[in-house]
Design a protein that fits this description.
The protein is of the alpha+beta class and 57 residues long. 28% of the residues lie in helices and 51% in strands. Strand 1 and strand 2 form a beta hairpin.
């Protein structure tokens, strides 16, 4: 498992908020899916409300 840094922005009540999070995943696609899943469950967001700009190892 590798450590990935995922950055982007999500739609909040007051406009778009930026984020950067560290994720442990097998590859960058899995890291991106984890972020969509995590933000969706914690913040009640749909995938269209999340924009991922960069996934770096």
């Amino acid at each position: 498992m590798n450590q990935y840094s995922v950055s982007g922005r999500f739609e909040a009540r007051d406009g778009w908020e930026t984020f950067q999070t560290e994720v442990e995943a097998e590859n960058d696609d899995v890291a991106e899916e984890y972020v969509y899943s995590n933000f969706g469950s914690k913040h009640g967001l749909k995938r269209r409300q999340i924009e991922i700009d960069e996934v770096a190892q």
